Amino acid sequence: MEGNAGSICVLVTGGTGLVGKAIERVVKEEGGAKEGEEWIFLSSKDADLTNAAETKAIFEKHRPTHVIHLAAMVGGLFRHLRQNLDFWRKNMAINDNVLHTAHEYDVVKVVSCLSTCIFPDKTTYPIDETMIHNGPPHESNAGYAYAKRMVDVHNRAYFQQSGRRYTAIIPTNIFGPHDNFNLEDGHVLPALIHKTYLAKRDGTALEVFGSGCALRQFIYSLDLARLCLWVLREYDEVEPIILSVGEEDEISIKDAVDAIIEAFEFTGPVNYDKSKSDGQMKKTASNAKLRQYRPDFTFTPFQKALKETCDWFAANYDSTRK
Question: Where does the chain cross the membrane (predicted)?
Fold first, then answer.
């Protein structure tokens, strides 16, 4: 990783969120930072990245050489169903401001974070990096998905026109400490963790939205953070790269519920409300490209990572986002 005049300053947008906090832990507690590097973790309090002037001011203040771009308007299925337009407009503004300002300030490399929900709804499986633009995404989160797809369009245009090597990662469903555990607007796993915690505490039934049949690949935030640093330092392609556990590690939502129940030692009844949407039934992703580069990378076993997340949530219940 090379910076201007040998100095390295890595700016992490969305630095206090799920992935940002995981990267901070890897950098500060696992020795992920290298000598001479400065790491800056931004929160939404530092700048409104939907505002071009505030975005420019934060780049002027810190003069980053590298950017890990995590900031986004995010949420679970039911928030997407309510606010597709908001997801489109806010994420388009954030991404355009960050990428354009990075270019203006001669940032060497930007690694943006996308999502597997950007892939076409009607497709063949497993999905891979070449299939992003092959058809419309699932209608439930079209606003967010199209806004994230435009990051790839933006990156390719910068490379074609200016030679910039800005790229993007495409993780599957991320979970871990510092997630948003909101019952209405959180992603499926943190929302289920919160529901199960409350059901055990209050002696009530656990109510699960949907049939439990939908399939997902889950990646632990700390594993993703370690891979983010590798992408920043060593991955030199403009084409995005899927960061995911293997196809064989895909599990059903019911499997995830059972694992959460075990982690909390919950013994009450579990009810599946099949009148609620399952969202996309599957979006199996191939990690073959990652494995070509990193055949040695070991993912944290799902049960272990989930137990650590549940324990963290219980220990930090009063202060965590929910």
Answer: none
